[in-house]
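To: structure subgroup
Subject: Chain for Friday's discussion

All,

I'm putting the inputs and outputs inline so they're searchable in the archive.
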Amino acid sequence: MGGLNWDAENLSQYHIYRSLMDNGDLLEFSTQSRVGNMIRYITKKDVNHSAILWCVDEFKDVKDRKFIMEALEQGVELNLLSARLRNYRGDVYWYSLRKEFNEYRDKIASICLLAEGRIDEIRYDYLSLIRNMYKKVNVDISKYSFCSEFVQWVLEQAGVIEKQNEALRPGEFGNLKIYKPRIQIYSWKE
């Protein structure tokens, strides 16, 4: 086993598409870990984690930053995308929101911003994650959420999609027809 080889070359695809990324775009991850492998095996998808993009064009001294909102072990978190990729062991795919849904981008950003910092209120939902791998669960993030459930909830709250009866899994968002075909923006090299 070699160590992590992180350099500018690993981020070359990300840098090609970075300027095109915007609020509401989807990122899906294929993590090289036991849990990631298990989720992909059970769901028969090639990804195991979903996050939604939140961008800052300009705020005080902060300019042109790309963040992701994601449900992780600690709860719902805002993470700088480039920092998340820096130590990531796996592949990452970007789905751009189709242009007919551009009117929802600001609403999606607002919902993400209001969800940020609620990690004491919205914890990671391990039980529903496991149940959802075998049988679909309902979307309810009032106290707990897993990654794709959070993304789905944001899209529902913004009015991009109708409320679904069951939580989506990573790899199922492409079926909604709201995103353009995915593009791989990061590939981990051992």
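Points worth raising on Friday:
Confidence is low (pLDDT under 50) at residues 1-6.
Helices lie at 12-17, 34-43, 81-86, 105-115, 126-134, 147-158.

D.
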